[in-house]
């Protein structure tokens, strides 16, 4: 297992442990997401640095290859004018540049593999971060809904108990209304109340006689 894969597993393990041990899972998950975001920033910087190093290696390889070609052309020119020792020395320089170019080519290929691995890990962590954020929002919404539902049921259960605040409020209201009714009638003159009762009875009798007078003759 590569170093970057172990790093990814370590990050996920740390996230799970932090959430399991925290009293507030939402806060712990938010902190873990922030840490993952910081890790992604560092990984992106590592990818950019690796690409820059590979480009520098490519430039060095190209320079060594050009130098090797130049030394080879020089050796050929020296040999043409009869300077065999000079041609040998130029070829030696050519071989040194060729070896350097070959070594730089191997470095470039190794760097290419490393960059590919870094990019793959970066994509995996980006996808994991996006997935974690999406699940975080979903689970937070579900948790808040569950807590609201639980509070509602707790409140309803509390209000359904005997002598609950709703019943006490009803009794208190009825008592206030009764007191108000008593206060309205407490100050009335008894004689006035007797006259009002008499008038009410007389009105009732008049209306009753009128109803009797309107009946058909056979029902009178």
Automatic annotation (TrEMBL):
Key words of the record: Coiled coil
Basic and acidic residues compositional bias, start-end: 200-220
InterPro entries given in the database record: PspA_VIPP1
Keyword Ubl conjugation among UniProt keywords: no
Protein name: PspA/IM30 family protein
Source organism of the structure: Limnothrix redekei LRLZ20PSL1
Coiled-coil intervals: 26-60, 108-135
Annotated region (Disordered), positions in chain: 183-220
Any Pfam family hit: PspA_IM30
Family: Belongs to the PspA/Vipp/IM30 family.
Record's keyword annotation contains Coiled coil: yes
Origin superkingdom: Bacteria
């Amino acid at each position: 297992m590569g170093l970057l894969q172990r790093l990814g597993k370590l990050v996920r393990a740390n996230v799970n442990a932090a959430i399991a041990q925290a009293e507030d899972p939402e806060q712990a998950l938010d902190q873990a997401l922030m840490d993952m975001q910081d890790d992604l920033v560092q990984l992106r910087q590592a990818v950019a640095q690796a690409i820059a190093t590979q480009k520098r290696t490519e430039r060095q390889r190209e320079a060594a290859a050009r130098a090797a070609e130049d030394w080879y052309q020089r050796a050929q020119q020296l040999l043409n004018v009869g300077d065999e020792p000079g041609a040998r020395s130029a070829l030696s320089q050519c071989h040194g540049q060729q070896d350097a170019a070959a070594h730089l080519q191997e470095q470039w290929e190794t760097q290419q593999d490393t960059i590919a691995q870094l990019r793959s890990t970066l994509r995996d962590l980006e996808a994991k971060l996006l997935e974690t954020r999406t699940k975080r929002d979903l689970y937070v919404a579900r948790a808040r809904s569950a807590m609201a539902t639980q509070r509602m049921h707790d409140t309803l259960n509390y209000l359904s108990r005997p002598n609950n605040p709703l019943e006490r409020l009803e009794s208190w209201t009825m008592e206030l209304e009764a007191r108000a009714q008593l206060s309205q009638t407490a100050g009335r003159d008894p004689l006035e109340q007797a006259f009002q009762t008499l008038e009410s009875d007389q009105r009732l009798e008049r209306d009753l006689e009128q109803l009797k007078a309107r009946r058909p003759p056979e029902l009178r």
